[in-house]
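Q: I'm building a small set of examples for a reading group on sequence design. Run inverse folding on the following structure and report the sequence directly after it, with nothing in between.
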């Protein structure tokens, strides 16, 4: 019972740590660290995600061995990580040196990293497949049924946290875009009123000033909103 309570407390701490992760990258890093600390037999952990083009890229790991395990799978186009992304939810490998399912990957992974046991989980939320969490060990047979159960819970926490962090980033980016558009629109209105120009002409004035000053369009617009004039006008006046 003590062990179960301790495990529950670990996952409670994990849930809080992941919920407060400021970015998806921080959430991914925390998952890999918790994997090594929590899943029995785990020496290394890595996360691979499906990119917008359908490819798979490594995004987080606890070290060189975990990164290389993922990289080799991507290079040869086979392995348990790719398997859980496309075909199954969990894949356990007792001894990679003796497993014939992925010969090209297995030979290189053992030779280049010393990894023997692997445990891979699909990271998903409903129908949205994010990628895979790959746990590895230098010992054959390191992952038992208990490790699979703990890893399954960890993968579920990870997928939810990463999705939440990704959604928060998207909301922040959308909010920033809306603020930027509002500032640009306000600046255009000021220029239209003061210079008696059209909407398109006002936008061209902002864009020209942005290029000339090597500043972002929104920053130039903010100057117009705050001062009522284009910053390039002040520059030209100072040069005269």
């Amino acid at each position: 019972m003590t062990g179960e309570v301790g495990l529950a407390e670990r996952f409670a701490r994990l849930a809080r740590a992941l919920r407060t992760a400021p970015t998806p990258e921080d959430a991914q890093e925390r998952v890999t660290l918790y994997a090594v600390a929590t899943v029995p037999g785990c020496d290394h952990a890595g996360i691979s995600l499906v990119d917008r083009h359908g490819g798979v890229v490594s995004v987080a790991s606890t070290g060189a061995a975990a990164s290389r395990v993922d990289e080799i799978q991507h290079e040869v186009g086979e392995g348990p990580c790719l398997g859980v992304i496309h075909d199954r939810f969990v894949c356990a490998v007792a001894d990679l040196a003796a497993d014939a399912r992925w010969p090209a990957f297995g030979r290189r992974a053992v030779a280049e990293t010393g990894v023997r046991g692997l445990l891979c989980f699909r990271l998903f939320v409903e129908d949205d497949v994010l990628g895979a969490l790959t746990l590895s060990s230098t010992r054959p047979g390191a992952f038992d049924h208990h490790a699979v159960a703990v890893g399954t819970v960890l993968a579920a926490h990870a997928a939810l946290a990463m999705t939440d962090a990704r959604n928060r980033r998207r909301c922040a980016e959308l909010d920033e875009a809306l603020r930027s558009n509002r500032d640009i629109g306000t600046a255009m209105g000021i220029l239209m009123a003061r210079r008696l120009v059209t909407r398109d002409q006002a936008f061209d004035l902002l864009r020209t000033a942005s290029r000339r000053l090597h500043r972002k369009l929104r920053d130039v617009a903010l100057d117009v909103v705050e001062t009522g004039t284009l910053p390039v006008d002040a520059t030209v006046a100072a040069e005269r």
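The longest strand covers residues 128-137.
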